[in-house]
User: Which sequence fits this backbone?
């Protein structure tokens, strides 16, 4: 099923690619308000976590843990937020967001709070390189 | 570590117990706006998913999948939302929420949207019994 995988156009427009893991494509949400990874299993027609087969779901869980550890190490954040919502973009994707007590939405969840903020391109590259080298 | 486990007082106040699985205590959030389970690993001093050891985290992942399937079957919801946030209550807990296109927050995430709504006690019992028998 992987060969037919196509990233949802909205996810593609909102993110920058980081790397591919065994199951997931790892993306950085292009919003400088929060260091924010999005993992998209490279499988077709998946909407819920329970749509994945057991092997893929187990691998995804390891990839979520790995990406969480790396994001926490790189950002030294106060808290991680991990979520699978999919109310607006149906393609299965998992948010892993580094939260700090000084960020634009704290302590609320990030969705619908602060307008998207443009990254400094050099700072974004440093962040992506650090995350990629940890994955 | 299980013997020392104590449910956070805020989580206790906001929920009704459903059952205990191998790792998680399963709670129903006492908010009739959305059928909403909360899974709390019965372990002490856990804040992040990555704080759990590998065995507990793997079991928790199975319990999230099981609770997701049961909640979807019982409610026939349009979408599941699964999230670990913990910005306000530090004790590690996982939200599994049944969403419908007609609910009080759709398509936004549920947090901070609609005021808590009281369940009809008999309807709540029917819901809890159905979920418990599926788990």
Assistant:
């Amino acid at each position: 099923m992987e060969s037919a995988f196509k990233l949802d156009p909205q996810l593609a427009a909102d993110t920058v690619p980081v790397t591919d893991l065994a199951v997931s494509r790892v993306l950085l949400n292009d919003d400088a308000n929060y260091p924010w990874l999005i993992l998209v299993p490279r499988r077709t027609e998946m909407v819920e976590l329970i749509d994945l087969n057991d092997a893929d779901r187990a691998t995804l869980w390891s990839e979520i843990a790995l990406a969480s550890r790396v994001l926490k190490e790189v950002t030294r954040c106060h808290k991680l937020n991990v979520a699978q919502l999919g109310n607006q973009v149906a393609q299965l994707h998992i948010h892993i967001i580094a939260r700090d007590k000084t960020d634009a939405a704290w302590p609320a969840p990030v969705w619908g709070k602060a307008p998207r903020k443009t990254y400094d391109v050099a700072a974004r590259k440093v962040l992506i390189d650090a995350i990629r080298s940890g994955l």
User: Anything to note?
Assistant: The beta strands of chain B are 15-20, 24-29, 36-41, 79-84, 94-99. Chain B has a mean pLDDT of 97. The interface with chain A takes residues 47-50, 57-58, 61, 64-65, 68-69, 72, 79-88, 99, 106-109, 111-112 of chain B (CB under 8 Å). The two ends of chain B are 24 Å apart (CA to CA).
